[in-house]
Amino acid sequence: ERKRFYQNVSISQGEGGFEINLDHRKLKTPQAKLFTVPSEALAIAVATEWDSQKDTIKFYTMHLTTLCNTALDNPTQRNKTQLIRAAVKFLETDTVCYRVEEPPALAELQKNEWDPVVAWAEKRYNVTIGSSTSILGPNIPASTKETFISHLASYNTWALQGIEFVITQLKSLILSMSLIDRHITVEKAVLLSRLEEEYQIRRWGNVEWAHDYDLCELRARTAAGTLFVHLCSESSTVKHKLLQD
């Protein structure tokens, strides 16, 4: 944390996009690049994060700012193709594809809650995904991976940074795409990603404050990542994706 050193937050349009101003100083990235974002809506959202800080700046609560810094500085030096392949690789260990056989109650819960999302994704993208109780997981067809690679290629690099961020929160490409396509809500996506944990909590009880804190944090990160993807995508592109069968 750092003591808040500014009074007012504003945005302005520069040559490279929209900039964030802290009083009369322009915001910079950790690598000292000018903090410039591609859309006015995203700039407003980031400015709101900075404006909402109180006496101290809690950087760990500023998920949109962090995502923008990652997109601008690209610390891992990955290109668009590498981002896409990293996202699709999550299919091999996707949360909703790994099922248990015991206890029967949890197995039934996974079937009832996860099967509809998998079925939606298979229909939405015209692919085969399936599930497995094997420790090796399901055998995802190469054609399925290629379809997701092709779909993700329709997003720009900034949006792909957000998609990967959401996937790492939910440990699931399928849940992430269902969320980004607005098939399910943030709350539902987080609940489905924590299905086994929630089952154990209901069975054995809650650890006071700890589980609730983890749940709220996961919701906040997932919501921020999803918002980031939408704000980095052209509205016409997002609308087109949502209208596809």
TrEMBL record:
Source organism superkingdom: Eukaryota
Key word Iron present: no
UniProt main location, coarse: mitochondrion
UniProt membrane topology term: Peripheral membrane protein
A GO BP entry: mitochondrial proton-transporting ATP synthase complex assembly
Entry's localization field: Mitochondrion inner membrane
Cellular component GO terms, alphabetical: mitochondrial inner membrane
InterPro entries, per the entry: ATP12_ATP_synth-F1-assembly, ATP12_ATP_synth-F1-assembly_N, ATP12_ortho_dom_sf
Entry keyword set: Chaperone, Membrane, Mitochondrion, Mitochondrion inner membrane, Transit peptide
Pfam family, one: ATP12
Function noted in UniProt: Plays a role in the assembly of the F1 component of the mitochondrial ATP synthase (ATPase).
Binding partners and assembly: Interacts with ATP5F1B; involved in the assembly of the F1 component of the mitochondrial ATP synthase (ATPase). Interacts with FMC1.
Record-stated family: Belongs to the ATP12 family.
Protein name: ATP synthase mitochondrial F1 complex assembly factor 2
Gene coding for it: Atpaf2
